[in-house]
Amino acid sequence: MRRGREEPGRLQGAPPPRWARIAPAVAMVALCLTQWTTRTAELAYFLAALPAVAAFAYGPAGTAVFAGLVLLLLGIPDLGVGQARGSDLATVATVGLLSVIIAWVRRRRDTQLVSVRTVAEAAQLAVLPPVPERVGRVRCAGLYRAAQRGTLVGGDLVDVRAGPYGVRAVVADVQGHGLAAVGTVASLLGAFREAVLDDPALAAVAARLDRRLTADAAAESVAHPELFATALLLEFPPGLPVVRVVSCGHPPALLLRGFAVTEVAVEPGPPLGLGLAGPAGAVVAEVPLLPGDRLLAHTDGVTEARDAAGNFYPLSARVPVLADDPAGLVPAVWRDLAAFTRGGPRDDVALLLLSPDHEIRTGRRP
């Protein structure tokens, strides 16, 4: 995906690694060669464990092949590997049969798991679809990493939409993370997408989101009524060389002008869901833009990530260094952040880079 999230299908699982499929065959050959060359050691009976090992990488048919080969090697003395007789051979056959059953059960469970994860992936992508490469005249590059392993949606949200009042974007961080926060994320996204079409003022968009969370928190069906979220709203009005910004307790966006990086100055308002924001409560900052300017919005999962010594990730200082990365700024920041934290932060992470086209800033029509 362009947004840098997990690729589609990642939740659906993957076939066993190649080494897991090769290992039983390599072990069989190694044991046979060792037995043929070392007559004093009795290694042949280790072959009896190979069908059970194969059951974790092969289906019932493949496991049955391994079980049959083991029975032949141990039951035919002329092969010079083993001399199993009577109860010993019956024990090996029983192990082989049980291994085939285990392989069948595992394959069936894998199929069910793929089906469940496919549905889960489709549902999550419906809640938070990838950010497109372009919305109106604004080029977008985004990245999302959920803290909870195996999920595509967590407690952060990113969206960019075009409407009659320009291109609007939201980057937000709701209370909590992981699957427990998905309901709040879906509620905020729905309210934002309606506001893009209906509300002429950016402050009214913030007020709508605040009302949505306040109403959700008051609902009796909500298990945790103390819902709140920080959010950063951006608006690129048509034909004007400016960006309007509203901050609801969210980390400020970064303005990239050449190799200079500055924080967008905006008076932060209260977080959403506390019932403190009204139609006139949010302060809107209007920032002039020059050709080539870019805006990088992020959640606190980036700036609050720590290294082994407990130091916070210095996003503002790292952006100028990473700005010329051929792969793009957003993937470069993620790789740098993963290296800084030695594997990636433990919180949800969202990055959104917005690049208005030159026509917007000059007011010229294409």
Strand neighbour order, sheet with most strands: 1-2-11-10-7-8
Q: Estimate the helix proportion, in percent.
A: 40-55%
What's the alpha carbon Rg, rounded to whole Å?
Answer: 29 Å
Task: Quickly give the structural class.
Answer: alpha+beta
Distance between the first and last residues' Cα: 28 Å
Can you put this structure into words, describing what you see?
This protein has helices at residues 18-37, 50-54, 60-75, 86-127, 182-198, 202-218, 300-303, 315-322, 329-341, 358-362; strands at 134-135, 138-145, 156-163, 166-174, 229-236, 242-248, 254-257, 260-263, 284-288, 294-298, 349-356. The two termini are 28 Å apart. Residues 1-12 and 360-366 have low confidence and may be disordered. The chain contains ten helices and eleven strands. Strands 1-2-11-10-7-8 form a six-stranded antiparallel sheet. It is α+β, with helices and mostly antiparallel strands.
Any descriptors?
alpha+beta, 366 residues, 19% strand, 40% helix, 5-stranded antiparallel sheet, elongated
Topology:
Elements lengths: L17 H20 L12 H5 L5 H16 L10 H42 L6 E2 L2 E8 L10 E8 L2 E9 L7 H17 L3 H17 L10 E8 L5 E7 L5 E4 L2 E4 L20 E5 L5 E5 L1 H4 L11 H8 L6 H13 L7 E8 L1 H5 L4
Antiparallel strand pairs: 1-2, 2-11, 3-4, 4-5, 5-6, 6-9, 7-8, 7-10, 10-11
Helix pairs in contact: 3-4, 5-6, 8-9
